[in-house]
Specification:
Low-confidence stretches: none
Number of helices: 10
Bound molecules: iron/sulfur cluster
Order of helices and strands: EEEEEHHEHEHEHEHEEEHEEEEHHH
Largest sheet: 6 strands, mixed
Shape: globular
Structural class: alpha/beta
Mean pLDDT: 91
Strand order of the largest sheet: 1-11-10-16-13-14
Number of strands: 16
Distance between the termini: 28 Å
Radius of gyration: 22 Å
């Protein structure tokens, strides 16, 4: 595992900006639409079979927008800025295993549901506040904002799932949050604050459980961001927002923004970001694992978007491999990115491209290789 080099000039302001009043939100239509044109909508109301509106307002119609890598039809909702909602708060003592499953099922939280379904007991709960990608701090910011609630929920989960060993994992260079955690965590003797080095890939379950030497037990592994979604449902709090980090050497100032979900990226950029370079590229979800988008025009910040890097175009070469073998040596999954041996094991971590002294874009080569398989 290695520590990634970071540009010392790219510093994220510790202040969060709040983008809670978009004029419009765009809900991807993956399932049946449940509302009619001009219908009034409350915040949190399901507008398709599996997605709810993050604002209250009026259904306007359908528009083609970019959802992650593809164009997709979206339901456009105009904001009425009233935040009318019907969410009900659940009392803490009422939280049971059945309630958790019910809430996650009702809210179509498939990723979280997978972790809890058919489980009555965990050996340990592992909560990770690590973000692997350079200049992405979502988990640590969310932890900082919600530390008391999150520790309370971990404690409650450990009681109902009878897990005695519970870890809250933080990088050892996050001094501020470590002190805040130490102040509160004393009241929860069953939660162990665990500090790890700032090494790439420790933010992935597979690698952190190996590091903790607990890969062979029944673990509940959650990133802070996922735990926060669950906590918000359980505590009847707002789940209509999403934290994103916007950074890079092509912008004046790097920012962390808590935004309503499903807003247009360009609206956020216009409001908060000054682009200072004529030539730049936009990378979604991290310099190591992320993907480039051609234009920000129609791109929607959905629940799966964590970060936006706006950077000067990198210089890649396409030939001149000097056969140094570094890309093979560094691969944690024993893939050979040159002859594409074992390419199906590739986890798209980007380490091979990162380490290549000739700046060869191995990520692109791997993507092509995967498509041929
Ligand atoms: S081949 Fe895949 S898994 Fe291996 S270093 Fe490259 S991106 Fe990571
Ligand atoms: S790291 Fe780059 S130069 Fe070295 S073997 Fe791999 S592709 Fe070739």
């Amino acid at each position: 595992m290695i520590r990634l080099n970071k540009n010392p000039n790219i510093k994220i302001n510790s202040e969060i900006n709040y983008y809670f009043n978009p004029d419009f939100v765009y809900i991807p239509i993956n399932s049946q639409i449940l509302v009619k044109q001009n219908e009034s909508i409350t915040k949190g109301q399901f507008v398709t079979s599996n997605l709810e509106s993050p604002i209250s307002g009026v259904a306007m119609g359908i528009k083609n927008m970019q959802i992650e890598k593809n164009m997709q039809k979206c339901l456009v909702i105009a904001n009425d800025y009233k935040e009318i909602s019907k969410n009900k708060k659940i009392k803490m003592r009422q939280i049971t295993i059945d309630k958790i499953i019910k809430i996650l099922t009702e809210n179509h939280e498939e990723k979280l549901l997978k972790k809890f379904k058919n489980q009555n007991r965990f050996d340990r709960i592992i909560i990770s506040a690590i973000n692997d990608e350079p200049y992405v701090y979502n988990n640590i910011f969310i932890l900082k904002e919600n530390i008391s609630d999150l520790l309370m929920i971990i404690d409650h989960l450990s009681l109902i799932y009878k897990s005695d060993n519970n870890y809250l994992i933080i990088k050892n260079n996050e001094a501020n949050i470590i002190n805040e955690c130490l102040n509160v965590i004393g009241t929860y003797p069953n939660i162990k604050l665990t500090l790890v080095n700032d090494e790439y890939l420790l933010g992935k379950e597979e690698f952190i459980v190996k590091k903790l030497k607990v890969e062979n037990s029944k673990n509940l592994y959650l990133e802070v961001e996922d735990l926060n979604i669950l906590a918000n449902y359980l505590l009847g709090k707002d789940n209509s927002t999403k934290l994103i980090t916007i950074s890079g050497d092509a912008i004046l100032e790097n920012k962390t923004i808590l935004t309503k979900k499903n807003v247009m990226l360009l609206d956020i950029i216009k409001k908060y970001i000054k682009i200072i370079e004529k030539q730049y590229i936009v990378i979604i979800n991290g310099l190591m694992c992320g993907y480039e988008i051609v234009t920000m025009d129609k791109f929607i910040v959905t629940n799966n978007i964590n970060s936006i890097n706006i950077i000067k175009p990198p210089i890649y070469k396409t030939t001149e491999c000097i056969n140094c073998g570094k890309c093979i040596e560094i691969c944690p999954k024993k893939v050979n990115p040159i002859n594409l041996q074992n390419v199906k094991n590739c986890i798209n971590c980007g380490l091979c491209s990162y380490i290549c002294p000739c700046f060869i874009n191995l990520k692109k080569r791997l993507e092509k290789g995967k498509n041929y398989e």
